[in-house]
Amino acid sequence: SQTIHQWPATLVQPVGSPLSLECTVEGTSNPNLYWYRQAAGRGLQLLFYSVGIGQISSEVPQNLSASRPQDRQFILSSKKLLLSDSGFYLCAWSVRRLRFEQYFGPGTRLTVT
Amino acid sequence: SQELEQSPQSLIVQEGKNLTINCTSSKTLYGLYWYKQKYGEGLIFLMMLQKGGEEKSHEKITAKLDEKKQQSSLHITASQPSHAGIYLCGADIPGGYNKLIFGAGTRLAVHP
Q1: Interface touch B97/A32, C-beta < 8 Å
Q2: How many Å separate Cα B100 from the centre of its chain?
Q3: For A102, which of B30, B41, B100 is closest by C-beta distance?
Q4: Which residues in chain A belong to E strands, given as ranges?
Q5: Which end of chain A, C or N, has fewer beta carbons within 10 A?
Q6: A34 vs B contacts (CB less than 8 Å)
Q7: CA–CA dist A11, A81 (Å, integer)
Q8: Closest CA to B56 of A76, A97, A90, A101
Q9: First and final CA of chain B: distance in angstroms?
Q10: Do residue B104 and residue A107 have CB atoms under 8 angstroms apart?
Q11: pLDDT tens by residue, A3-38
Q12: What is the pLDDT of residues A48-80, one digit of tens each?
């Protein structure tokens, strides 16, 4: 069966510090991968998606970047965090075809102080 | 751009009562997904609807997509404390790659 892992679970970082969040998927090959951010009391906002190694599409201009160094690994990064980067970050995967449900990881709660 | 509006924003019900959550789209829906989220956790996939008039059930939860494919409802029968959480609807963004947009969510509390 497929599983998706995210770490760390929680993170408190000062403004201006770098960020690296990792997501890995097991039990599937060639998945679509996604990063979402959920701000307090709001829905999910799609940040990045990837259809293959090294292929990243950004949905919104921001202080963050994403990379996919391996088929089942997706990394969210920042060189300098802003207060507005605080939120709950969720990674998800789906089978690579149209209209298939996405499966989500447990999330990382990031607080920028 | 497409937007999803969920109502109500929050709901408090007594255990055993029925309830309905609505999700309305500004454009035709080609794939509508319902998820449940416990606070501080990831999303759990509940159901996916694609065809106008389609209805699916899982245990005591039933989801419907209207004939015009612009509105979906999630109905819980005889609610239990285990149903508490945030319910989110998501919709396919045309253009492929399974990109989804989400509503803001409905926070459900079930009191024993």
Answers
A1: yes
A2: 14
A3: B100
A4: 3-7, 10-13, 19-26, 32-38, 44-52, 55-58, 65-70, 73-78, 87-94, 103-104, 108-112
A5: N
A6: 99
A7: 12
A8: A101
A9: 41
A10: no
A11: 999 999 999 999 999 999 999 999 998 999 999 999
A12: 999 999 999 998 878 899 999 999 999 999 999
